[in-house]
Amino acid sequence: MITMLRRVRQPLVLVLCALIVSSPALSQTVRSAYELMQDMMDSSTATNYSGFATHEKSGRLATLHFTHLSRSVQSLERVARLDGPVDSVYYPRWRDQACGTAQDSVQMGALSFAPISNLSKLAESYSFEIRGQYRVANRLSTVILLNPKDQFRLPYLISIDNQSDLMLKSVILDNDGKPLERLQFVNLQIGGELDTIDIAAEAISPCKEVLTDTSPLYQPSWVPPGYALVFAKRNRQPNQAMMTFSDGLASFSLFVASPEISTNLPPFSSSNGATSAVSIKVDMGDVDLTVSVVGEISKETAERIARSVMSGSEIR
Amino acid sequence: MSHYNEQLAEALSALMDGEATDIETRRVLKALSSSEDPQAQLLREKWQRYQMVSSIAHGGDVSNSDISSSIALAIEQEDGFLETPLKKILGVSGRFAVAASAALVAILGVQQFNQPLNLTDETSSFALLDEAPLDDYAGPVNLYPANSFLPENTQVQAVSSERYSEKEVRGYLRFILNEHALIAPYVNSQEMLSPARIEQRSPAKSSE
């Protein structure tokens, strides 16, 4: 009996090893959450895919169709809504990796443009934890919790396809773990005819010249750690400004209204899904201006940012 | 984090994954049973979060089931049934005070904007204030101009006096939400994560 067991032991070990290597579910556990995130980012840039998805926000459900075409360093993403008004499109987005790096060294007053360009930067603000396996769009995926390291941002729960490394599901949670928004693919097509179809010339956008407001009228003296200025402009109306900050995942925009508009606006707050908006009056010396913060942050954080806004001359 | 707390967190994690040993299970239950210890409260909250995350990850409904703390607090704060005459007077005058302040400060209130929104004119009036058309954005590439409407179901809370118009507030809110929506999907480098942020836009132009 013992001899027989010895005989079968060696082949049994080999069979088990083969099973472990060939099973996507098991081999998936070899990769860390960080590696999975990195693979997802790489795959999402390089893969041609299309699929139907549902988006749930504030108790409302929308059905969407995604198309993502990648050609060398350029990509086009189109998201169409399939219910509601006919032919509604959330956004078509053209990306060219050759563009967009011009902001790297631009200074705007005391703030510098610092595009978040890698996962390690994101990892400074969020920890990545594998939370198990889950089937989405009939594909086995690994669930990762992007857990914020402070109270200034929201947690995300994402599911990454074990085969293609594409994101199949994303849930934005509040800080109590309650879902605020949920996006989930119901089917996904990868490659095939998507690899060869031509991108319409109208969809291609040339690189934009970078225009920068180098002497901003207003600036926040506090933003949550990890957020960098990614966009700024000054409006036509005197004394109006807009700035957008991002930590690589979440973003918020800050608005300062002109005295004329400020006069007609009361302080207010609003929320819709993961997006909060807070508008307050800030004393700018000789006048009270309406300062508003909108983004995927809590109302408390938005208000703190808004209260920290000063005129450019005060900061300089 | 102390060594004990670290062990406790590991034990809780193992328990949630169904991999806890008897000793770990006992350790967690003992820590949770302490009502005074702040560490126990933290542990309870963590347990709650883990349960929610696990529930969401597996497609279940999310319910904040641990209401023991809030019930205990409510009971603690509840007034007795016996009221002194002084307390009665204060209670009545307090209600008048609330009513008076409510009259002074008009609350536009929590509004459900479920109606079909025919307010693009207001948005446009704010949008006209922009110096440059969207094609001249200094930031990420943007293909189509702003012309969006307020997301349905948006709740707005405003404290106002008579000189403010609700229409003005809605218009400005729509304007800033739209401006943010134009930029937000472009600023994240994590291309695949961008679908996590869906921003509502106006119906597509024919050129799309």
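Residues 166-187 of chain B form the longest helix (22 residues).
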